[in-house]
């Protein structure tokens, strides 16, 4: 019998509960506090944490109903242990811990980034690994080599400053087109030209390719866009959005494909909220096909933060016979990606 | 007959108890203002090994420093959901038991205060065991004479559960954040 796993994700502003049986998704309930953060132009940790507490029980109850199971049938509880906002993570961990203890079932404290990658198992039945993972969201931009999603992830590179999604948020805020910035810029970009403005590609000089081939930097790009907007009062919003987006997407894929080439791994998974970006998905398909790399991108709803991915990783851990956490563990706001399953 | 699991994380202590029909069968606390998450799970595991199976959960809903307070509430609510048993919320300040002789009280009237961080205290005043003012949060110099370094009592948390049913955390403070439009 495949394990029935409930997953809880509260690392940022989504209170998300997922239920899977083996590799089959049964429920994926998300309560987001994003509207409460919009007027602040970014996620306010205390508002997010309050919203998590308020949404937690109703979300669990909804997920159980959608999955048409009883809580007592759950074989294991999995929860995001980090990285993320500490006050937000703690609500999820405490809830998962209370559930696991109430049910008398094992508790898995899992890595948020590994969860984003593992959600692929809900759409593909063939083995994922070995694979290069490009993980891009509002909080993270990393290139990872995944040899075993339940036990072995190697970090190849990461952003030196802003995360890709953060850059989208900041540019959207300067242009006054709304929060979160990703979907707003994506939509606006469809009305402009990606080649209208030549914005810089961070860390792509020959020196950078030598010293930090798989790291990213988006702060220079952000400044370049801000300067352009200042010096061009009658700028075309669509062109700025499209050209900025192209600069981000281009450099993400350049480095991801370079990582595939260097490691000899001919499979790439793109995960995280920015993987929902339509231009990234389109360009990734084109470029991967050209060089014969197998591309895996989850459906947009499974790219942004969700509970299904946490349940998916929990299910893979149970199936692989990995040990659950001890009764008590702390959430870790800066949990390294190499720590997949807290012990 | 009610067997209550009582949980309070509104102070620097993580407090867990089991009260079986008025009798305290288990009572332990862990001191540590940032330890609530780990401590609660360990203490509840201990409590469940030691005693009968609870049929309700009583939760101290604050006021208390937000992060620790939420850990206790969300753990307790989720435990209750998993067991399909009810949870009852009570005011944590009301659960502080004051002994008039040891505290040298002249009359049956007093104010209790607990640490709210940021140089403030959560407080409430009582007369003949009944809250007459508060709960509120202020700087210590703005509160009349008060008793502090006091903590919720397991038996009193459970006693209050037949009189109160607080369904929301008692924060008393709004989140610190300024909307983009109001920034200068």
From TrEMBL, chain A:
This is N(6)-L-threonylcarbamoyladenine synthase. The keyword Metal-binding applies. It is an enzyme of class 2 (transferase). It comes from freshwater metagenome. Transmembrane segments: none annotated. InterPro entries: ATPase_NBD, Gcp-like_dom, KAE1/TsaD, TsaD. Residues 25-311 form the Gcp-like domain. It catalyses: L-threonylcarbamoyladenylate + adenosine(37) in tRNA = N(6)-L-threonylcarbamoyladenosine(37) in tRNA + AMP + H(+). One of its GO terms (biological process) is tRNA threonylcarbamoyladenosine modification. Pfam families: TsaD. CDD domains: ASKHA_NBD_TsaD_bac. GO terms for molecular function: metal ion binding; tRNA N(6)-L-threonylcarbamoyladenine synthase activity. Its EC number is 2.3.1.234. Gene3D superfamilies: 3.30.420.40. Keywords: Acyltransferase, Cytoplasm, Iron, Metal-binding, Transferase, tRNA processing.
TrEMBL record, chain B:
Residues 33-152 form the Gcp-like domain. One of its GO terms (cellular component) is cytosol. Transmembrane segments: none annotated. GO terms for biological process: tRNA threonylcarbamoyladenosine modification. This is Unannotated protein. It comes from freshwater metagenome. Pfam families: TsaD.
């Amino acid at each position: 019998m495949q394990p029935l796993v409930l997953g809880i994700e509260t690392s940022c502003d989504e209170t998300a509960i997922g239920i899977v049986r083996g590799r089959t998704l049964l429920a994926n309930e998300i309560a987001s506090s994003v509207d409460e953060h919009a007027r602040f132009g970014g996620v306010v940790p205390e508002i997010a944490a309050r919203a998590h507490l308020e949404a937690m029980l109703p979300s669990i109850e909804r997920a159980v109903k959608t999955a048409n199971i009883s809580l007592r049938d759950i074989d294991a509880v999995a929860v995001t242990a980090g990285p993320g906002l500490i006050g937000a993570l703690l609500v999820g961990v405490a809830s998962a811990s209370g559930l696991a203890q109430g049910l008398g079932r094992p508790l898995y404290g899992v890595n948020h980034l590994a969860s984003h990658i593992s959600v692929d198992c809900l759409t593909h039945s063939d083995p994922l690994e070995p694979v290069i993972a490009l993980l891009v969201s509002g909080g993270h931009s990393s290139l990872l080599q995944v040899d075993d999603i339940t036990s072995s992830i190697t970090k190849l590179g990461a952003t030196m400053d802003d995360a890709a999604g953060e850059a989208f948020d900041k540019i959207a805020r300067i242009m006054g087109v709304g929060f979160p910035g990703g979907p707003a810029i994506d939509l606006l970009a469809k009305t402009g030209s990606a080649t209208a403005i030549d914005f810089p590609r961070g860390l792509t000089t020959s020196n950078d390719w030598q010293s930090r081939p798989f790291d990213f930097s988006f702060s220079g790009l952000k400044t370049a866009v801000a300067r352009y907007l200042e010096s061009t009062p009658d700028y075309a919003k669509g062109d700025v959005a499209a050209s900025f987006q192209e600069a981000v997407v281009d450099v993400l894929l350049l480095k991801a494909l370079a990582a595939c080439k260097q490691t000899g791994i001919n499979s790439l998974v793109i995960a995280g909220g920015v993987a929902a970006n339509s231009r990234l998905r389109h360009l990734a398909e084109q470029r991967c096909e050209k060089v014969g790399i197998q591309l895996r991108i989850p459906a947009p709803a499974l790219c942004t933060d969700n509970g299904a991915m946490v349940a998916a990783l929990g299910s893979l851990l149970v199936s692989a016979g990995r040990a659950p956490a001890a009764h008590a563990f702390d959430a870790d706001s800066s949990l390294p990606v190499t720590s997949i399953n807290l012990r | 007959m009610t067997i209550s699991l009582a949980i309070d994380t509104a102070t620097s202590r993580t407090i867990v108890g089991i009260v079986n029909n008025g009798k305290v069968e288990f009572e332990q606390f862990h001191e540590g203002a940032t330890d609530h998450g780990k401590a609660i799970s360990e203490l509840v595991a201990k409590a469940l090994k030691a005693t009968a199976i609870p049929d309700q959960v009583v939760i101290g809903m604050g006021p208390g420093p937000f992060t620790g307070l939420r850990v206790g509430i969300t753990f307790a609510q989720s435990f209750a959901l998993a067991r399909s048993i009810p949870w009852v919320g009570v005011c944590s300040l009301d659960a502080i038991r004051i002994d008039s002789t040891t505290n040298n009280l002249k009359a049956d009237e007093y104010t209790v205060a607990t640490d709210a961080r940021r140089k403030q205290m959560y407080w409430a005043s009582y007369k003949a065991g009944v809250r007459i003012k508060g709960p509120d949060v202020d700087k210590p110099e703005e509160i009349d004479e008060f008793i502090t370094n006091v903590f919720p009592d397991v038996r009193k948390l459970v006693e209050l559960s037949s009189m109160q049913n607080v369904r929301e955390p008692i924060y008393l403070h709004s989140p610190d954040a300024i909307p983009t439009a109001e920034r200068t």
